[in-house]
Amino acid sequence: MRVTGQAAKDLEKHLESQGIATPKKKRTSKVQPKLSPVLFVEMCKRHGLPRPEPEVVFCHGRKWAFDWLFRLPMPGAMDGIYEVHVAVEIQGGLFSGGRHTRGAALLSEYEKLNTAQIMGYKVLLFTPQQVKSGEAFPIIHKAIYGVLADG
Question: Burial letters for 90-121: b for 16+ Cβ neighbours within 10 Å, e otherwise?
């Protein structure tokens, strides 16, 4: 018989009160820790990219935000009126059943990304592994400057 939930907790307390040790299950997490914002900014700097802005809301009615946004004046534009907007979304949990792999959440993500594209943003999607390995940065460089950086 398997005992779960509150009954399992009560049984464990009872056994401990009787001096009977209960084996503790070792919890293992398949979820990788979230990518550090400090690491992302530092890697951008090392790859010759401008400093990105974190968690920038781009659609106020929906409160949608990008993980990172690079905002730059276009060459030759006066007073930075015309800007290049390159957004970076880091899609974690792809291989562990995270938010970006479930139906309703994925449809919502598509709506957000499509809206951003219509609004004129270049949106790049990466996994945390692509960022940590450095694979993402030449692509970001190309999206901003139009040429692929040596990587």
Answer: bbbbeeeeeebeeeeeeeebeebbebbeeeeb
